[in-house]
Amino acid sequence: MRSLTLREITVRLDAGRRAFTALDRVSLHVARGSVVGLVGESGSGKSTLGRAVVGLAPLTSGRVLLDGQDVTPGRRRRRSGPGLGIQMVLQDSYSALDPQLTIGRTLDEARQAALLRPATLAAQSAGELLELVGLDHALAAVRPGTLSGGQRQRVALARALASRPEVLILDEVTSALDASVQSAIINLLRDLRGTLGLTMLVIGHNLAAVRHLADSVAVMYAGQIVETAPTERLIGDPRHPYTKALLGAVPRLNGSVSPGAPDPDGANSPGKLPGEPPDPHVPLPGCRFHPQCPVGPLAVPDRTICTTHDPRTDARLRPHQTACHFAA
Ligand SMILES: Nc1ncnc2c1ncn2[C@@H]1O[C@H](COP(=O)(O)OP(=O)(O)OP(=O)(O)O)[C@@H](O)[C@H]1O
């Protein structure tokens, strides 16, 4: 396993009439064999970050490093990019699997692709891969359409593991599943982490699921990471005003939640904060969070949070910070 380092990742996307900044200089480190959770509201840029790392979203600037080695997608001097070294599993495994191929064929193709990679460790058989994710060998003969959502997600995981990736990015892999299936997948990921020592970036709305997998959690808001901290510290002592607001909307998080506990009502997910997150298509002048920021008008009603409060130093970064309720 290797570490994953993201340095100042910026992604500008084209949304019809004009481009907008979906990710703004995002930096993150996932130590070798560790698990980092990435949480935030819908539209904050979590999936775009994962996609940019594996080359599925255009990277405007920034670097992707595996153990310090530059594997940034699209860089000229890099020959293969993250390639098979970083694998991503998506929420929608139905569209991610070819409906015409049997599961065995899908896994065999993934194994074959991995064998072309010189550094690849010995790939396992399709049956062994299925076993690894808790599925019966017999499922190798069937097509994805006959599987349940949970089984398909396990197959998607097996396909990602077929190439023995150094880093696994899991994007909302449980959010489309029933509560009990969610719980089983979370437990599977915990087991795989133990047996394979995987380095993982786990993206999710569900803070409880991330909590029970992740050593540390990064909180994303409007295309930026506003706070990163060891998981229990983040939950017990959030420093950034946005993290506090996010956790404040989740009363049960400070209580006891059993590992991998299902969360059918979303009570352990980041709660619904007042107002709407900023629209990334509309550039915001001055403070991005505070409705009364004197630097400029804010297009986000009810968001009484100022991002200019530095959680690491507790410093007030800019003069207009004094208008922020949270830092007052
Ligand atoms: N291909 C694209 N073209 C244009 N805009 C996009 C594209 N992909 C994402 N976006 C926009 O980028 C922003 C970030 O989206 P992203 O899917 O990364 O957020 P997210 O935090 O993963 O949300 P969710 O949890 O709902 O998946 C959103 O405003 C989204 O509409």
Automatic annotation (TrEMBL):
Keywords noted in UniProt: ATP-binding, Nucleotide-binding, Transport
One GO MF term: ATP hydrolysis activity
Superkingdom field: Bacteria
One Pfam short name: ABC_tran
Annotated region (Disordered), positions in chain: 253-284
ABC transporter domain boundaries: 4-247
Protein name, UniProt field: Peptide/nickel transport system ATP-binding protein
Source organism of this protein record: Nonomuraea endophytica
